[in-house]
Amino acid sequence: MALALSSILLSILLIILLPPLLFLTWYLRVSRTLPNLPRIPIYVSILGLWSSMGQDEIYERWFRAPLEKHGAVLVWFAGRWSVLVSRPDWLTDMFRNEHIYAKAGSQIKIPHAVIATLVGDNIINAHGENWKVYTGIMKAGLQKKVFETTSLLKQSRKLVDVLIDLQKEVGANRGILIMADVQKWAVDVMSENFLDLDLKKTNPHQSLGQPNGAVRIEALQSIIKATLFKPMYFSFPDLDHFPWLFPSRKSAYNTMREFDNCLYTMIMAMLHKRTQINPTQSKDMVSHMLGEAYTSGRITEKQFRDNLKITFLTAHENAQQLVTSMFWQLGTRVDIQDRLREEILDTAKTHPNPSQEIINGLPYLTAVVLELLRLFPPVCQLINRVALRPALLGGELPIAKGTFVGWNAWAVHSNPDIWGEDAREFRAERWGESVEEMQGRFRRETVRGTYIPFNAHKRKCLGQGFALLQVKILLFVLLGRVSWVVDPAYRLKMTPVSVFLLGLDDVC
Ligand code: HEM
């Protein structure tokens, strides 16, 4: 009798469990069309759910050995197995041949997902005709030959003022968290230089110096970042199909819509005001160019909104990340700070308000920023291309049509076969002595696929020149006024950096 009961229970259990098990086996299967490469265990993609391991530790433990040996691995990313590449010649092939390895962002891969709602179809993730249209409209605004340094200097000085006040407030015995103010600074710089959202002192959009949360569109950025990178939803975006089941997804969609509407309303108000004040004024900002294309019918309202959002996001968060890493790196290596400060103070004597040429002519400053980008590439990994036809990557690795492929910049930048045994050390001197030498090496390594913080070839970053200038100017101002050390209690992770700021004489 007891035996019969237990076998009935077992059968019921099997009937209940079998369909989900079969479904999971099918869902997680590795397609036969994928190349024969080592596979990163799937649990690594959701490790963040139960482990506090940083991305650097995860990379060392699971990625480094197979990537350095095979040049590529299979990785579970955004709901499918994809090919992650780190061999420079294969990367160069991928970057050069966009007609084969076409951009296919989340709007193509997972159009229903929260992240696709956020970014839509834009200049970074579009392919073909749409990309040509967006580039034709926006490129001139992103790649201005001469960027005005006055406002960059002013905003950098303001960030330093805010940090000094913060340190005074907490007292000399406690470290300060710099992340929130760095984000505000990055958002303000982007708003003023690309979107024309800075309207002087009374500007309600300027967030630096205001309490956290005072400027809603800036505050939304922290919510968006925390929402997007939740490991479970990031790795299994199919869960986004069920917002009625997961209340956090419902609120994620609402946040993305709020950001979209908030930005659209602000830009439309700015454009309206501009037309009323001076309709003939030159329109050299990305937001003006997009506005003009929208009102003349060259792009739809959705395309207008999507490209505004990507400009907002990409033009602030990469600089924000780089500066946060900079605070950590230079706060643990005071010798670099000292050497850089010497160069800066020397220049500031004759150029207290340096132009773009003066800033870009400083060799050690240039080398430090290039080295920061090597060791802390803000865009560390991207898998946003799809093979449009069967291909042999680099003439060696068979890639079937429809396979998603991507790259990992840290893998390339930290490989000792490429950068030498000291690849993981910060050594600005490796870039050379003169600025010309450094720029030459920067160009060569980019073309070879061995230095890819801004990607390379056809789809490389269009904001590179501005981003480099922005970070150099901040360093110029920051090092002229303060020195800092990282709070000894802080461990490097993808968490806020806490520093002790020590004031210097006001020079810059
Ligand atoms: C430190 C700062 C920055 C870094 C590290 C960075 C990095 C990158 C990378 C890696 C890509 C290639 C993305 C891909 O392959 O899908 C890219 C593309 C792009 N970036 Fe940046 N970026 C930075 C700042 C900026 C800024 C300030 C702007 C100005 C709005 C900008 C605009 C763009 C655009 C428009 C593209 C797309 C180019 C195309 O596909 O034609 N970036 N960036």
From TrEMBL:
GO biological process: mycotoxin biosynthetic process
Xref: SUPFAM superfamilies: Cytochrome P450
Gene3D superfamilies: Cytochrome P450
Cofactor names: heme
Pfam families named among the record's database cross-references: p450
Domain of life where this protein originates: Eukaryota
Coiled-coil annotated residue ranges, if any: none
Alphabetically ordered keywords of this record: Heme, Iron, Metal-binding, Oxidoreductase
Residues given in the record as heme binding sites: C461
InterPro entries, alphabetized: Cyt_P450 (IPR001128), Cyt_P450_E_grp-IV (IPR002403), Cyt_P450_sf (IPR036396), Cytochrome_P450_monoxygenase (IPR050121)
Name under which the protein is recorded: Cytochrome P450
Organism: Penicillium roqueforti (strain FM164)
